[in-house]
Amino acid sequence: MSKMAKIKKEKQTAWQRFCAWVNGDTADRPLMPADPPAPRKTKTDKNKKQKTVSSRKEGIELNRFGSIYRICAVLIGVAVVTVLMVTVLQLPLFGSPDNPAVNEVVERYVEKGLEETGAVNMVAGMILDYRAFDTFGESSVLFLAVTCVTMLLMRDKNNTSKDEDLLTAREHVIEGYEEDIILTKIARLLIPCALVYGIYVVLNGHISPGGGFSGGTIMGSALILFAVSFGMIRMSRFFTYATFKKVTSCALLVYAASKAYSFFTGANHLESHIPLGTPGAILSSGLILILDICVGIVVACTMYGFYALFTKGEL
Amino acid sequence: MRLILELILPALLIVCALAVTFSKRLLVSVVIYTSFSIIMSVIWVLLESPDLAITEAAVGAGVSGLLLIYTLKKIHALKGTSDE
Same structural domain for residues A129 and A85? Predict the structure, then answer.
């Protein structure tokens, strides 16, 4: 009788087993093979036998679902690729004049962009003048992302144990007197160049290709290189969590304030009081330079913040 | 010359994309992914959008590869970091 009941128990419907497999419900199988669970003591040999039999059965079931999963994956992949290919075949030719993307908006940008924004680089004029609000959203998204990473990875008293504290203290000591000669020498050469180039890209965003995002990323990678080669202790002499908070939020607030001002004065066919200057000069094109600098600061701080939080969990 | 580049670079992109999925070691995947970004930035230059090329080179090849490697280190998936 008991045997019958067991068989009944194991004979679940295929759907139930599939659900269990999808949910990762694999009885007492460990999820991570790296840390095997402590072996459980079984009272009798009978129990042991049953256990091995059931686990073997489970493995076979998993294998069966594995092959089905692979076939399904290939089928779905092929289907998606065909749909995408067919769609691409039906797209209009790249750059042909009767594309739906070529309309009065593009004409306006191309013909009157230089006159209205004062930016020689048309892309900068578009993203930081006509569509500055979108760029503000993007900067805010970066800020939010770094806030979330801070919430998840920031070290504090609640999420670290004593061992981890000891480990970080030891790492700090090692960091103090061990310097990689090749890394530090090359970093000394590279960091000033990268920083200057980043600043150049940010400041020339309205004249040449580049702008806040790319320049900010270059500056951020220079900061990361500094932190990698000279250690977090030297980094914390001029860049701490407090400066990070102040600088990023100030940059975002300046962006919001200046763009709000420009909306009130320049949008809706109102007269703008911000001088546009001569196109091609650095101090030209109204607010674009300020907005570029703000975006650059936010992006540089965010990139470095990501790095610092991912490595040490502190800024 | 330009035509050859325009033919070779997309083919290299596809090779890189396949190699990322088929490589066994995660670190190798990350390195191939950054090379994908570098090829992509050259393609952006050929398509006459230098703004995107700079951003792709800085973000795709620089920072995101670095962040991925540090994520691998954080989850102890790199060689030599598993015994912490």
Answer: no
